[in-house]
Write a structure and sequence with these properties.
Order of helices and strands: HEEEHEEHHHEEEEHHHH
Shape: globular
CATH topology of the largest domain: Aminoglycoside 3'-phosphotransferase, Chain: A, domain 2
CATH class of the largest domain: Alpha Beta
Distance between the termini: 42 Å
Strand order of the largest sheet: 1-2-3-5-4
Oligomer: single chain
Helix content: 40-55%
Number of strands: 9
Strand content: 5-15%
Structural class: alpha+beta
Radius of gyration: 20 Å
Largest sheet: 5 strands, antiparallel
């Protein structure tokens, strides 16, 4: 966790401006004397509004982004979180002490959430328990009765592909990645879709004192069946945590047809994640050597997993 107060002399000027806008917006609701603490500024800006038990989630807009679309996504996030809570899925809840929003912040918007402090030494999450949480999440998402956009979580890969095609990339790994993504984009159109969290991996589970809680519902959409399971496995695989063994253990409980579906979905998830990371790296918002090394790891994993 990185703390940045209003007097930080090393604060990026754009971040300083965004925090000032967040504080001004929160003051409109009577939250005065705020000391903003940045919890994350990778992707959306996440800020703890000290001394209040409130966290602001601020949409980050890139050139060409439509602020009204982001606002709609943030509105849906709140409804999804409340739905999952009613289904007894552990989530970090929207703020209850004041309206959770969305609220305008400069040219973008923010939502307000309950602050969930993370212990100094959080517990680890094993694969079995993590997959149980994913299955409960998937079951609850199936009961969400609002219309959802098809393949909403796939848009990040499409955006990254468009970025990479506008620059001259002298690396065979990027060429391989773009070719694989185009093939999978065509393949995914014929797959059965179901409501999904869209980004259900361990990075979106907060290890708070009373257990793990899901966060980040902006990618909720209709995605291929097993997408959330594939997201969890892909995240662990990219961290090098015995992915082949975990994959085989999951496959054992599935029918032949389901195994094929999961294998295709996991490949799609790995490729889209790698492409998204590469696109961010070329925008200088992620580490390029790390993004390229992930492509190498994915190629090795896909070669190691026997085709079904």
């Amino acid at each position: 966790m990185r703390s940045i107060g209003s007097g930080g002399c090393f604060m990026d000027l754009s971040l300083r401006q965004r925090l000032s806008e967040v504080v001004c917006s929160a003051e409109n609701f009577g939250l005065t004397g705020i000391r903003p603490q940045v919890l994350s500024d990778a992707g959306n800006l996440i800020v703890h509004l000290i001394p209040y038990p409130v966290v602001a989630r601020v949409a980050t807009l890139f050139p060409g982004d439509d602020a009204s679309i982001e606002r709609h996504i943030f509105e849906r996030e709140l409804r999804v979180a409340n739905h999952l809570s009613r289904c007894r899925v552990p989530v970090v809840l929207p703020c209850s002490m004041i309206s959770p929003g969305p609220h305008p912040v400069g040219e973008t918007c923010m939502t307000l959430w309950e602050y969930a402090p993370i212990p100094e030494y959080p517990s680890s999450l094993n694969t079995h328990d993590g997959l149980q949480m994913v299955r409960a999440l998937t079951s609850a998402m199936a009961q969400f009765d609002e219309p959802l956009p098809p393949l909403g979580a796939w848009r990040h890969g499409i955006e990254a592909r468009n970025v990479l095609r506008t620059v001259e990339v002298m690396d065979e790994r990027i060429d391989w990645l773009l070719t694989a993504f185009d093939r999978l984009t065509a393949d995914i159109q014929d797959m059965a879709l179901a409501p999904a969290h869209g980004d259900a991996h361990e990075g979106n589970l907060l290890p708070i004192a009373c257990g793990w809680r899901w966060v980040d519902f902006e990618d909720v959409s209709l995605m291929p069946v097993f997408w959330d399971v594939a997201s969890f496995l892909a995240h662990r695989a990219l961290r090098g945590e015995r992915p082949a063994l975990e994959f085989e253990q999951v496959l054992e409980a599935l029918s032949r047809e389901q195994q094929i579906t999961l294998r295709r979905t996991l490949e799609a998830r790995l490729i889209s994640t790698a492409l998204t990371n590469a696109g961010l790296a070329w925008r200088r918002q992620a580490d390029l050597p790390v993004a390229l090394s992930r492509i190498d790891r994915i190629r090795s994993m896909l070669a190691a997993w026997n085709p079904l």
